[in-house]
Amino acid sequence: MAQQAFHAPHGASDFLGLRRGRGGETQIVSDDGVARRMVWRVEGADLGELRLEDALRAALGRARVLPALHAELKRRAIGIERIAR
Q1: Whose CB among 17, 55, 81, 85 lies 3.0–4.6 Å from 29's, allowing a Cys bridge?
Q2: Whole-number mean pLDDT of the chain?
Q3: Distance (Å, rounded) from C-alpha 56 to C-alpha 45?
């Protein structure tokens, strides 16, 4: 998987991205463009990238991106663990 970035379509500076960590694990990066940057490790090695991409796109379509991201991941049974703030 190459790094992938998704930006909020409604003009906000919200950003969500997928990347590989040093150990090869999939990570989600969130940046609000102002003060907060967070990184989560995705739990489960057999997840399809399409499920993650769909969750990130759906979350960015909402006004409150982080709560929407957590809801979308939960709805898809995708576990995450925060590793950086």
Answers
A1: 17
A2: 82
A3: 18
